[in-house]
C-alpha cells in the first residue's frame, strides 16, 4: 500500500475505520484482480463480505482470479484456483451474477519453460525434493501433471449488488 498520484485512498479493508472511509465515497464499481489466490479460505470469505459492505447500492464488482497459472514462489500463495461457478457459489452468492467467464490466453507454462532451459533443470531437481515446502511441491506436481500445457486462464465474475431496500 502506498500513496501516489491518482490514488484517492490507501488503507486496509480489514480496518473498520478505513471501510467507513471507503463507504463514504459510495463506490459504484470495484475491480478486484488476482487477490484471492493469496488469501486463505476464511480471509477470502471476509474479503467477499467486505466488498459487498463497501460497495454502493446497485454498484458493480468485477473480480478475477488465476485459474490455470503456476503458483507463485511467494510464501503467501494460498493455491486457490476456482472455476467461475465455484467462486461465485462459495464467496459471492449474495451478489446478483451478471456474467461469469474464463478468460484464456495463448500462453502456457510449457511454452514459458521451452524458452528457459535453466529453469527446466531447476524444476526437474525440485521434483526430487518433496520434503521441501511440501504443500507447494504437491500443488506443483498436480499442476505439472494436469496443467503444464494448458494455456493460462483466469476466472472472471461480473456482479451487481442489488438494492434490497
What is the strand and helix layout of this fold?
Elements: H1 16-24, E1 29-33, H2 41-54, E2 60-68, H3 84-91, E3 96-108, H4 109-114, H5 117-127, H6 134-147, E4 151-160
Parallel strand pairs: 1-2
Antiparallel strand pairs: 2-4, 3-4
Task: Please give a structural write-up.
Helix content is 38%, strand content 22%. The protein has helices at residues 16-24, 41-54, 84-91, 109-114, 117-127, 134-147; strands at residues 29-33, 60-68, 96-108, 151-160. A four-stranded mixed sheet has the order 1-2-4-3. It is elongated.
The SSE string, one letter per element, is HEHEHEHHHE
Derived from helix and strand composition plus strand pairing, the structural class reads alpha+beta
Largest sheet strand order: 1-2-4-3
Which value, in Å, is the CA radius of gyration? 19 Å
Gap from first CA to last CA: 34 Å
Q: How would you name the oligomeric state of the polypeptide chains in this document?
A: single chain
List keywords for this structure.
4-stranded mixed sheet, 6 helices, alpha+beta, 165 residues
Task: Briefly characterize the structure.
The protein has helices at residues 16-24, 41-54, 84-91, 109-114, 117-127, 134-147; strands spanning 29-33, 60-68, 96-108, 151-160. The model has no long low-confidence stretch (mean pLDDT 89). The protein contains six helices and four strands.
